[in-house]
Design goal:
globular; Nucleotidyltransferase, domain 5; 9 helices; 2 domains; binds adenosine monophosphate; five-stranded mixed β-sheet; alpha/beta; binds magnesium ion
């Protein structure tokens, strides 16, 4: 726990790219002192960006106070404020950025804009001990296979349309599975899939190193309407979608010859996806690791830790450059702190 000794440095990180508002505190040596999240649950349908942003502004003070209390730190003991600058939903990003700018100005400490996807990779590395992994980052808004090369995380394959988590979420909603706080829709699909017995024929679309999931989603919903059992369709949807991302991950692994495979992002919680990736990692003599559940979904700790890494390598974001970047790709971000063997 932080004692506020002058030699210790702490970064507070704010995550607000989509449905979650999170605040984390990371010490510069990698200790995570706090990681508090409050998620917005839509009344119906998917995330409404302005409603989610309103949620974030309503809970911001409560989440911040809880994070300070957990970290046992006073605001003036923080050395740096980091925030998720993109990619994400504009209104949600702007809410987090506004809180971060206000804190930085009030406390007179530097600001660092962090790429959300880089945050997922860095927290995965920190928590699992992976040094130079090939990473599958699969969440509600992103699906990509990345690995470090020449100063940046390069994208070896990605979805051409919807993200893996979004595919599961939209299917679940169309199937009438209700949103419940604390139980992600993807986890509900996973439970049903475990009771599936039959592989329903659904599209499998990999183009080069990229995958397309929207046709699979449409076909899965249609199969349900034609009378296939929900459990069988959940099972078949998972088998196809996870096989597609696993195929792309395996080819990237063969090409990059990395010795570690890391699974991160909200969908990392899925045991079936984990087991498929474990098999291909084993076949290529690579060590497989999964980010722990509490750091898998969007969280403030990953932003705090990545902000600390950036700052320790001389990077800060002047307030006039702190505008949010809705489509900020991971391969546009220099990561000078990454050192490979
Ligand atoms: P994130 O966007 O990183 O906050 O992650 C949220 C996404 O992870 C949503 O699409 C969830 O449905 C998905 N998710 C969470 N748990 C699971 C699970 N056990 N299996 C599949 N998807 C999941
Ligand atoms: Mg989320």
């Amino acid at each position: 726990m932080g004692t506020g000794k002058p030699a210790e440095r702490f970064c507070l990180g704010i995550e607000s790219t989509a449905d979650d508002f999170g605040v984390g505190v990371a010490a510069f040596d990698g200790k995570i002192l706090a990681n508090v999240t409050d998620g917005y649950v839509p009344e119906a349908g998917g995330i409404h960006p302005r409603e989610a942003a309103r949620h974030h502004s309503e809970v911001a003070d409560k989440v911040l106070s809880e994070a300070f209390a957990k970290a046992q730190l006073k605001p003036k003991e923080i050395s740096l404020v980091a925030f998720a600058q993109g990619p994400g939903l504009g209104p949600c990003l702007r809410t987090g950025a506004t809180v971060a700018r206000a804190l930085s100005a009030y406390l007179g400490i530097p600001l660092v804009g962090v790429n959300h996807s880089v945050g997922h990779i860095e927290i995965g590395k920190l928590q699992t001990g992976a040094q130079d992994p090939l990473t599958l980052y699969a969440s509600g808004g992103n699906t990509m296979v990345t690995a470090y090369a020449s100063g940046r995380y390069r994208i070896f394959g990605e979805t051409l349309d919807i993200a893996l988590g979004n595919c599961l979420d939209v299917f679940a909603r169309e199937a009438g599975i209700k949103n419940q706080k604390g139980t992600p829709l993807g986890a509900a699909v996973e439970l049903l899939a475990a009771k599936g017995e039959k592989l329903v024929s659904l599209p499998y679309v990999v183009k080069g190193m990229d995958m397309s999931l929207s046709g699979l989603l449409t076909a899965a919903s249609a199969a349900l309407k034609k009378g296939e059992r929900l459990e069988d369709v959940c099972f078949s949807l998972q088998e196809n979608a996870f096989s597609m991302v696993t195929e792309v991950t395996e080819r990237a692994l063969a090409h990059t010859e990395k010795k570690e495979v890391l699974l991160t992002g909200g969908v990392a919680a899925n045991k079936r996806l984990q087991s498929m990736l474990e098999v291909i990692a084993g076949e290529h003599d690579a060590k497989f690791s999964v980010v722990p559940q509490k750091f898998a979904t969007d969280n403030g700790a990953m932003i705090a830790w990545t902000g600390a890494l950036a700052y320790m390598n001389g990077l800060t974001t002047p307030v006039e450059e702190s505008f949010v970047k809705v489509r900020w790709r991971v391969d546009k971000v220099d990561v000078p702190w990454v050192k490979t063997l």
